[in-house]
Structure formats: C-alpha cells, structure tokens
Amino acid sequence: MDETMAGDNLRARLDKLQDILGKKITLDLSGRSDRVKPGNSETEVPSWEDEHFDLKMRQYETSNDYGAETATYMANPIKSPGNYKDIDSATLKIGQSVDEEISFCPWHAVVHYPARFIGKANKPRAQPFFDRVLEGKTWDFFYLHNPAEPEQKPCLLVPTAQFVGFLKGVNQILATELVIPGGPNKRLFDLHFGVGGTPRPRYLLRSRDQKKLHIDEWPAANEEDLRLYQDAADVHRELWLAEWEKTKQHSFPDNRGGSYRAEKNREARLQMLSQTQLFLGLQGARDPPGKPVTFICVDIEAIEVAPNPVSEIGIAVLNSERLKGIAAGPSGANWWDFIEAHHGCPNNFDFGTSVFPRRAELVDTLNTTFAKYANGTHDVVLVGHDIKSDIKYLSTIGFPIDQLPGLIGNVDTQAIYRAWKDGTKSPSLGSVLVDLDIRYKNLHNAGNDAVYTLRAMVAIAVVGLHSAQDAQLLEPS
After folding, report:
1. Which segment of the chain is annotated as a signal peptide (predicted)?
2. d(CA 313, CA 156)
3. What is the tens place of the pLDDT at every residue in 239-289?
C-alpha cells in the first residue's frame, strides 16, 4: 500500500471514529516508534497516552473470539490510579534506572494473579483478560539482577501503577473489585529498591499490543549496580535482599510442563481448602452439601523397620451437623469439644480409653467403628496429615478405606495448610500446630495425632477464610 492509499485509509478510519463518538478527533502520531529492542540505549519510547487512537479503534475491530466484555476492555486504555507513582515512560532509555519511589511488582505475579487472588466465582470471568494481558495494552518492563548472583537471569518487573490500572479496567467491565491483595501478599505488589544507593530496576522494553512477550536477550548485570551494592551499608543491603526475596514468591520454574503441573497442584490445594470450608458450613461457603458431613481422621503409626508393620491406629470423628448454630471461635476452638476419639496407646492417649484388638480382629474392629458413621445418613470425608500414606498403610492390613460407603472426598491438612500459606514445603503436624498456636502434647500417639489433625483442619479452614475476607478476595455470600 503506497503512502496515498495509507493516508486515505487512515482518514476513513478517523472519520468513522468521529461519527461513532460524535465529536472531532485530532490525531497526532509524532513520536511513535516500533517495539524497543534491548541494546539500543538511545531509543526513546512514546508515552502511555499515545496509544489512545489505535486502542479506541479496536473497540470496533477486535475479533468476537475475545468475547464482548474482553473486547470492550481492550479498546479502552486505563490510566493508572494515583495511589502509586507512575513513570514518564517517554523519557526512558534502555538500561536507565528509575526513581526509588517507583513501586514494582514481578511480571509472574501479574500473570498468575487469577489463580492466587481471585475467588472461584469471578476467576473464570477474569481469566480471559489475563490470558491476553499484553494485547491491546501497553506495559513498561524493567529488569533487576541480584548483585550477589549476577550471572543468574534477572527478575522481570512492571510498575505497580500500571498493574493497578489494568485491574481497574477489568473491574469497570466485570463490575468486580479486584485489588492489590491485603496482608502479607501486598508486599509482593509493592516492591521498592534503591534505599541507601542500592541497585534499582533498569528499563528493558515497552510492550505495545503484543500477543507474546519477546525478550531476545537479557542484558548483563550492570557493573555500577554491582559496585553500589558492595559499597552500601550492611543495613541497606539487607533491606535490598528482603525486597529481592519477595520477587521469588509465587514464582514458577521456567519449564512450562513443570509450571503447569505446579499451578494445577496449587489449584487443587485451594479447591480442597474451599471444600473444607464448605463442608464445615463456614460463613462465605455457598451451596452446602445435601447431607451433613462427617469428617473421619485416621492416623497410622508404623514401626520404622522394614517391612514397616502397622503398630497403632487412631481415629477421630467430627460431625458437622453438631456444629450448627455454634460460633467457631478463634481458630475454631469452640468446635474442638465435638471431636470424638478412638484407640491410642495406654498412658499417652489423652482423649479417651485405649482399645487393643488382636491382629486377627483389627479389620473387624475398624469395620465396626466406621459403621457408626458411614451408615448412609451422612456424607463421609477422610482426613489425614499426608493422607495418602495412611490410606496405603490401611490397605496393607486389608482395610480399603477408600471404598468406604458414603465417601465423597479427602482432606489433607498438609495440602490445605500449604494452600493457606501458599507455601511449597510440606510441614509436619507439629509445625502446623505451632504456626496455628494450638497447644499439644504426646504427638506420635495415633489417637492424639488424629484429634490434633482434625483441630488443625478446623483452624486452617477458619483462619484461612478470615484471611481471604480481610484481603477482600472472597466474593460476598
């Protein structure tokens, strides 16, 4: 297309937009440029507002595959709110550092925001915006190396103000209230570097209406940053490292298959926590199950010498029907007295009288115990701390607990604890109890462990629900 035809086409599009908007539109394309590539330190980029014309036209030209809500949003750029200091991107050059007052968030935290910080009702509605987070929008990307490991790949960052503006745009379309989360997670989206002259993020590139982010080559660590870090006072280096450590939160490995599996596992843990809250009838849980739920916790102690024979079995039971009308209290402590316990060891079993069937009678004893609760009147949920190992041990003695009548699912307190903490490690029961401030004694007694596991389950469900409400991340019931 020659310049005359291109000009006629642009004027026709401009006239169309003027007719739609009902007012005169003046187009100034001065200062526009193509995508910036690392290495050209003299290249300037256009300001955030320079995108208005093309993005406005996208309102009428975006493919219907996006859906009406997504297409409308992508056609309307959102200026960043004033809560976070924005950047005059027109003045930036590749490799240039920025004012330490600028707040940043890691790009991986932006991309995975729906999985971590949006409730299950709104996540499917918001996910399409994040799937096309680059399209129809402009982002300024920055990089930051760890001076202690300069050979490692840098962290990719964007200004917090731009992400807040992105959320605001989604909220305007969906009538949601997506925000930077409260509590400890807020720090992930409000990172500041440069105190005491320590290294600050450096400008990398501007992404304008891209389908994918293209970074051809990462810049090497800046020698001046390495010197600034070494010359800084100890307290300032410690502050810098504290901020750097936050950039690793919620991150995934580079391997896409590993990333996918990690995200799916995390979603499964979050779903398990949500289901636990639902079964307990906690505030905010929707569509309670048709039948009351009985939680049955089985804890197995095995001799730590091959072939690891089962030495002790403890059982604890909590009937959700008995909790109706009773406030859970701090960490659910008001519900603990409703937990029934069976078996254990003499002298160390703190919640009842121990029962000792002979080896040949063990399966019959278990069947008799479970028949009291798995009788068709209640749905049954198995509970355990690393529950797979307990199920495996029970199968070795001829009791396939996963075939229990009325069984509708499992709750693993390791998993829901990790969902609450968004952690990667699988803690011991004792560590979980300490973190929840639940006093305990005589662990590794199967009967006691079963009771404490149910207490931990209740506490995580209660505290986890409150944390989400404080952060305004659960939709109203």
Report:
1. none
2. 50
3. 898 888 888 765 544 444 455 677 778 888 888 998 898 889 885 544 455
pTM for this predicted structure: 0.47
CA–CA separation, 327 vs 22, rounded Å?
58
Give strand pairing partners of 319.
294
Residue 323 and residue 338 in contact, taking contact as beta carbons nearer than 8 Å: yes
Name 217's Cβ contacts closer than 8 Å, sequence gap at least 6: 38, 39
Q: How far apart are CA 160 and CA 99, in angstroms?
A: 14
Residue 306 burial (C-beta neighbours within 10 Å; 0-12, 13-18, 19+) = exposed
3-class secondary structure, 318:
strand
Calpha distance 415→417 (Å, rounded): 5
Q: Measure the CA–CA gap between 452 and 434, rounded to whole angstroms.
A: 11
pLDDT in tens, 185-237: 888 898 989 988 899 999 999 988 888 888 878 889 999 999 999 998 888 88
Q: Which helix (H) or strand (E) holds 61?
A: helix 52-61
320 has a pLDDT exceeding 60:
yes
**Six token digits for residue 293:** 């739920």
Cα–Cα dist 204/286, whole Å: 45
Q: Which of 236, 254, 257 is nearest to 192 (CA)?
A: 236
Closest to 278 in 3D by CA, of 186, 411, 123, 184? 411
CA 381/CA 399 separation, integer angstroms = 16
The pairing of strands 379-384 and 407-412 is parallel
Task: Please give the Cα distance from 461 to 455 (Å, whole number).
Answer: 10
288 CB burial (10 A radius; 0-12, 13-18, 19+): middle
Longest dimension (CA), the chain: 96
Beta bridge partners, 472, equal: none
Q: Which tokens belong to 117?
A: 């910080």
Instruction: Specify the 3-state DSSP secondary structure of 435.
Output: helix
